[in-house]
TrEMBL record:
<dbReference type="Pfam" id="PF04073">
    <property type="entry name" value="tRNA_edit"/>
</dbReference>
<feature type="domain" description="YbaK/aminoacyl-tRNA synthetase-associated">
    <location>
        <begin position="27"/>
        <end position="144"/>
    </location>
</feature>
<dbReference type="InterPro" id="IPR036754">
    <property type="entry name" value="YbaK/aa-tRNA-synt-asso_dom_sf"/>
</dbReference>
<dbReference type="InterPro" id="IPR007214">
    <property type="entry name" value="YbaK/aa-tRNA-synth-assoc-dom"/>
</dbReference>
<protein>
    <submittedName>
        <fullName>YbaK/EbsC family protein</fullName>
    </submittedName>
</protein>
Length: 154
């Protein structure tokens, strides 16, 4: 098991999460790829997107069926500017590569917004620290384990 994934699995256990980390037969760097491998709707994939909000990391867990409206998110959190982070910023903030960013297991807490649309799905799938790993959860559990704020981000 990749060290990032082992860390995420340990954090899931510590937080009392119900899902087990699964290794996928191929990398799933996008919501479409993950949904195809899992046989679920793309909207049930929780994309973990890191943004720079006035230079600070912001994690937006959004439905794979949505695009994040950065102007709307900036207004929600009171930031002057929210922009997609580059790969180095993402890895520094989370310890994970783009395509495998988990909602937990980061070196330091990251402010998190959780797309309310994910509540439409009984099972939500999130990355587990590596593009080949994923875990099942629920919207409520995702909000709880991340300490995230429910939000409309599209």
């Amino acid at each position: 098991m990749h060290p990032n994934t082992a860390n995420v699995a340990a954090r899931l256990r510590e937080l009392g999460a119900t899902g087990e980390v699964r290794e996928l037969p191929a990398a799933a760097p996008t919501a479409v790829a993950a949904a195809a491998l899992l046989g679920c709707e793309v909207g049930a994939i929780a994309n973990s997107l890191i943004f720079a909000a006035d230079g600070e990391p912001l994690l937006v867990l959004t439905s794979g069926a949505h695009r994040v409206d950065t102007a709307k998110v900036a207004a929600l959190i009171g930031a002057a500017k929210v922009k997609r982070a580059d790969p180095d910023f993402v890895r520094a903030a989370t310890g994970h590569p783009i395509g495998g960013v988990a909602p937990i297991g980061h070196p330091r807490p990251v402010r998190t917004l959780v797309d309310k649309w994910l509540a439409e799905h009984e099972v939500v799938w999130a990355a587990a620290g590596h593009p080949h790993t994923i875990f099942p959860t629920s919207y409520d559990e995702l909000v709880r384990i991340t300490g995230g704020t429910p939000a409309e981000v599209e």
